[in-house]
């Protein structure tokens, strides 16, 4: 479907001669002013992408021909989206949006309404729970991995400026005992809540770390039943309320990497920020959900961001994307996006099971600016590969304290760096000395908001979720399963069984046995 569209043909032709941003008179103030889109508190500045009016028109045409908006509507109404037709697959609705559809905008469709009702019940339970434990705990340890760690951790770190006083949050994800030991060295079990998060209730790393931490509590004569909380799927192996102080539920229609706004992130964020501030995260996400499904072609921010990505990936043939937040608080956000994007769109068959004859999800990576400027920007400016960038910036810092040094505040210095990089990458620099030549034409765009607070963060999270989903819709791939991740779990399980069988092979997995020899 993707390659058969008329827009695909048009874009292929246009990509023979994309706009040259380094040419005199191309990158003008008028262009910067014109190529900007607004919505939900964000400005998307894309004058530094290699697009012109014709390309933009064809990109919107591509969204229309592939029914991208219709599919977003179907997803948010609870239609089964997670499947490969004609083959065994998960066959599930994809309803992470229902986790925040708990305010005014309840959907009429039964599946979506039931999902948001379930979410509301868990939220009310959480509210009561948080009131009940108020003043009893100073620390919270979240144990979980993948989707049960990355998104929640990124959000927690992003909002540290707004954490309640005297509340600290720690994370254990890696089965590396050093991870757990490091956290355990910082906490007093008597004053610590432990939230064990596993949708499946069967993830090796999480269950191992739970036992690791339980053992420490038991050693210190602290009853885990009064400190441990479970967040898991109903009827999972972890669904045993008798072992926990409280149990909260998540459902199979919320994918791990889309679960930060479900109970997977809610318990920890509710503890850290307070219930009401956590609800601001949901509010921001909900507003972006409504925007993603209702804003029309030409005005839809995450859809346009998805289209610009497709232009760079499929027509300019650029295989990676760097996401660079000019915000220290977003230090783990690229790691979350790495999972969100690459686990969702790292696929090479379409929804009918056919091999894709086109590229799909790019490699996503990133690190906050300005720090990145002092390391990998060298390659970004002068390397042989062109790397598109998505900058994220905020007009104001989270903390009100700032200082004017030599005429500018730190926040002004941060933003000036962002703007200067965006222009330099697009425009390049001519010089007689080849070592000082910057080729330019390095596509990039800026997503700008006022301040990184709970509401804006929720909207930012949802913006990226929808960008990824839109790309999947246009590429006609299933963005909601993860066979590649499942394989790793199965193989590790096999090797572990061998190791447990007296640490010598059973003969059933010779390659594993061969590798095990190297551990001796
Ligand atoms: C996310 C993935 C994966 C998952 C982890 C943890 O979309 O499926 O990262 O979140 O493997 O799984 P559990 O929550 O089931 O422990």
Report on the architecture of this protein:
- This protein has 520 residues and is of the alpha/beta class.
- It folds into three domains: 6-65 and 295-396 and 409-480, 3-Layer(aba) Sandwich (Rossmann fold); 96-281, Rossmann fold (3-Layer(aba) Sandwich); 487-519, no CATH class.
- It is 43% helix and 14% strand.
- A six-stranded mixed β-sheet has the order 1-2-15-12-10-11, with helices on both faces. It has a five-stranded parallel β-sheet with strand order 6-5-7-8-9, sandwiched between helices. It has a two-stranded antiparallel ribbon with strand order 3-4.
- The radius of gyration is 24 Å and the shape is globular.
- The structure holds glucose-6-phosphate.
- Glucose-6-phosphate (G6Q) binds next to loops.
Question: What are the salient characteristics of this protein?
Answer:
Rossmann fold; 3 domains; alpha/beta; 5-stranded parallel beta sheet; 15 strands
Query: Helix count?
Result: 17
Query: What is the CATH topology assignment of the largest domain?
Result: Rossmann fold
The total tally of domains equals 3
- The N- to C-terminal Cα distance equals 53 Å
**Low-pLDDT regions:** none
Structural class: alpha/beta
Q: Characterize the main sheet.
A: 6 strands, mixed
- What percentage of residues falls in helices of 4 or more residues? 40-55%
- Gyration radius, in Å: 24 Å
Binned strand content? 5-15%
Give average pLDDT, whole number.
Answer: 95
* CATH class bucket of the largest domain: Alpha Beta
Strands across the major sheet, in which order? 1-2-15-12-10-11
- The best one-word shape is globular
CATH superfamily of the largest domain: Glucose-6-phosphate isomerase like protein, domain 1
Ligand names = glucose-6-phosphate
CATH architectural grouping of the largest domain: 3-Layer(aba) Sandwich
Question: How many individual β-strands?
Answer: 15
């Amino acid at each position: 479907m993707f390659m058969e569209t008329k827009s695909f043909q048009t874009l292929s032709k246009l990509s023979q001669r994309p706009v040259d941003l380094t040419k005199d008179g191309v990158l003008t103030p008028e262009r910067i002013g014109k190529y900007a889109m607004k919505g939900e508190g964000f400005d998307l500045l894309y004058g530094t992408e290699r697009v012109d009016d014709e390309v933009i028109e064809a990109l919107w045409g591509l969204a229309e021909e592939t029914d991208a908006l219709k599919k977003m509507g179907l997803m948010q109404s609870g239609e089964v989206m997670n499947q490969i037709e004609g083959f065994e697959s998960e066959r599930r609705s994809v309803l992470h949006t229902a986790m925040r559809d708990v305010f005014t905008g309840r959907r009429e469709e039964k599946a979506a309404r039931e999902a948001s009702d379930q979410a509301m019940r868990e939220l009310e339970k959480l509210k009561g729970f948080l009131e009940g434990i108020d003043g009893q705990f100073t620390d919270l340890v979240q144990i979980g991995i993948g989707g049960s760690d990355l998104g929640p951790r990124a959000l927690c770190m992003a909002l540290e400026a707004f954490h309640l006083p005297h509340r600290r949050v720690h994370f254990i994800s890696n089965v590396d005992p050093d991870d757990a030991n490091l956290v355990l060295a910082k906490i007093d079990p008597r004053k610590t809540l432990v939230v064990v998060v596993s949708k499946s209730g069967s993830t090796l790393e999480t269950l191992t770390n739970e036992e690791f931490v339980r053992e420490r509590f038991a050693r210190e004569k602290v009853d885990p039943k009064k400190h441990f909380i479970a967040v898991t799927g109903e009827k999972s192996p972890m669904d045993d309320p008798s072992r926990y102080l409280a149990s909260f539920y998540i459902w199979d229609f919320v994918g791990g990497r889309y679960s930060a706004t479900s109970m997977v992130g809610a318990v920890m964020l509710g503890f850290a920020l307070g219930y009401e501030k956590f609800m601001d995260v949901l509010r921001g996400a909900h507003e972006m959900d409504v925007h993603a499904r209702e804003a029309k072609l030409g005005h839809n921010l995450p859809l346009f961001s998805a289209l610009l990505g497709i232009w760079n990936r499929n027509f300019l043939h650029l295989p990676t994307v760097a996401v660079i937040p000019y915000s220290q608080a977003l230090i783990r956000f690229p790691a979350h996006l790495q999972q969100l994007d690459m686990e969702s769109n790292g696929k090479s068959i379409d929804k009918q099971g056919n091999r894709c004859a086109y590229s799909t999800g790019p490699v996503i990576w990133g690190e906050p600016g300005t720090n990145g400027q002092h390391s990998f920007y060298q390659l970004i400016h002068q390397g042989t590969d062109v790397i598109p960038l998505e900058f994220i910036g905020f007009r104001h810092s989270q903390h009100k304290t700032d200082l004017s040094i030599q005429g500018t505040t730190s926040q002004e210095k941060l933003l000036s760096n962002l703007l200067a990089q965006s222009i330099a990458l697009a425009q390049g620099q001519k010089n007689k000395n080849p070592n000082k030549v910057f080729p330019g034409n390095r596509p990039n765009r800026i997503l700008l908001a006022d301040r990184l607070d709970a509401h804006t963060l929720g909207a930012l999270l949802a913006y990226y979720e929808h960008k990824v989903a839109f790309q999947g819709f246009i590429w006609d791939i299933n963005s909601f399963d993860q066979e590649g991740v499942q394989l790793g779990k199965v193989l590790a399980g096999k090797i572990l069984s061998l190791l447990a069988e007296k640490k010598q092979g059973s003969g059933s997995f010779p390659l594993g046995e061969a590798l095990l020899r190297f551990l001796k």
